[in-house]
Amino acid sequence: MPEEDTAGWMRRCILIGAARQSDRWISTLQAAALKSGQDVVLLDDIPTRSDFGDDSRIYLSREHRHFAPTENADRVVVLDGIDRFSGMGDIPEDHARIHLIEVSRQAVEALLWAKTDAIITTATADAARNGEPLVLLGLSVVPPRLEEFGDDPRDRRAIAAIAYLTGEAREAYWCPVHFIYDRQPLKASEVAVTLDMTGPPRALLRGPYLWAPIGRWKIVARFSIDVDGARQELQFRWGPPLKPTTLKTSAEKPGIYEVELEAEWDEIDGMEFTIALVHGCVSGELVFLGATVSSV
Are 206 and 180 in contact (CB under 8 A)? Predict the structure, then answer.
């Protein structure tokens, strides 16, 4: 029997990477194991000696740090439900932003832990809910019915914001309200935020700090600028907060513009896009129109 601190002894592991839906999935997997006569160990903490057993055991957890998989272990990650948001409109905007960041961080960590093994997204689970059951590590599983996502604007925006984690296109739209602004906007809506450029050099906006899997990611951001603002030099930054790609430029005239930047994530980290004033400004308005992020 291995020692308690020995890593690399679990052969079959299932990680629930969608925290809000974890109770439903855990109950479903435990029922499927009971029906098939298999042994499932739910790890709510670091495993103890009582958790050690033969290779037929399936280890189940909400937290990847509780696992000790062998190098060739079967790893299943359940992301079913990370794109089902409900009730986001009932909490303060700052709390909603933090919650969305945490959802993305947990999903990205789960994807990294999964390596190249099975990843159960909502699309995968929906197909099994409406057709043949999934076979997960020898268990025949009909995915649980999840809470329907809400119809609040924040629920819809949250679903769109993390689509890069679950969709085949690996692309998502970030509306302006996901970002942080240095001053109270002059006007704000789901599609446009008007900013006063007057003042010292500074970041006009930054964010949204959702987490990125390892790889190369591109952002295409849209904004408009007035006559006075067009005379100002802007710095655009995109990437991991400590290793951004930067671009300095000025608009030749007022109008609507797009800026496209790419950056590499060597490790999982937050995604930061910034538009900053390089010099002080006595007059000018910039209207931020949101951004699209995609894998390259």
Answer: yes
